[in-house]
Amino acid sequence: MFNAAPSSWxxxxxxxxxxxxxxxxxxPPLVAGDADAATGDVRKVVYALCAMLAASWQxxxxxxxxxxxxxxxxxxxxxxxxxxxxxxxxxxxLTPSSxxxxxxx
Length: 105
Known about the structure:
The chain is an alpha+beta fold. The chain is 26% helix and 27% strand. The protein is built from 3 helices and 6 strands; from the N terminus they run αββααββββ. The strands form 3 sheets. It has a two-stranded antiparallel sheet with strand order 1-2. The protein has a two-stranded antiparallel sheet with strand order 3-4. β1 and β2 (20-21) form a beta hairpin. It is globular and about 45 Å long. 3% of the residues are buried.
């Protein structure tokens, strides 16, 4: 059964009502230097968050995934440049009047 609690999908997730906290160790392959607010690399932060959420999606399995949100991912090898392109797609059902996420029930 789907558990909507952020802490069930993001290890170490906490919230104090004003700020959310996610330990860097919960977002591999992110390291402290990449996440530094002044000198880090936002691309590495976004990539690591997407990869972690996609992995959580897969780990949950179809019986525990939400019905009104999907996450898909893929990779493609770019031979001449010897790089890999990673793609992530997040889809959400939204309520038109508020643009809020549609409840599962």
